[in-house]
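Model it.
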Amino acid sequence: MNAPRTANITHWDERVDLAAALRWAARLNLHEAVANHFSLAVNEAGTRFLVNPNRRHFSRVRASDLLEIDATDPATLDRPDAPDATAWGLHGALHRRVPHARCAMHVHSPFATVLACLDDPRLPPLDQNACMFYGRQAIDTQYGGLALEEEGARCAELLSDPSLSVLVMGNHGVMVIGETVAQAFDRLYYFERAAETYIRALQTGRPLRILSEAVAAKTAAELESEPSGGAAHLAELKAILDAEGSDYAG
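Modeled.
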């Protein structure tokens, strides 16, 4: 792995993880142009966080490019390197109000966004992947425009329950949270996969065999009790990037 280009940059390991997750989100087509943001809290209170720079494509973000900002600093948008206003509105509100949301990943990924546009945007327990999110989804059906400060505060409130890991943002996209970059990215990956399975199943026009609440709850608990595969998942993705000579860790 490359050494940091700037010696005084802090939270280097966290930056490398977040940059790798951004690169893979682009590779998996989870991103949207130069919009969408990933963030990671780096202080105990959760109010200082890393976030990708304004209008930089996910596929070009390096660890040293990530901004470190303070969710309690009202002058943040006056900085010369100010984050995107929607990143400040959505992620700033989340890190200010929801300390357990250490890592937050917001995307307009294809299948999660289709799901978010359905009259009932809840992901049902159709398959094993979907069971991971049974009872762990917050649903927003009150889309009110761009995720500036007022909208961001409303969305943050919907994730205030620590048992929740996903906010399906109606008519918008999805926000996935976790304790680490690895956990959040793993959840984002599996939520998009589960949403794809559900949307493609709907497209068949045939009846769906939704799992029972009892089986869904049991499977969700079993998946939670297993040693986290998120860390191994991210480690392998970083190994692939390293083998390809990627500059994500620069």
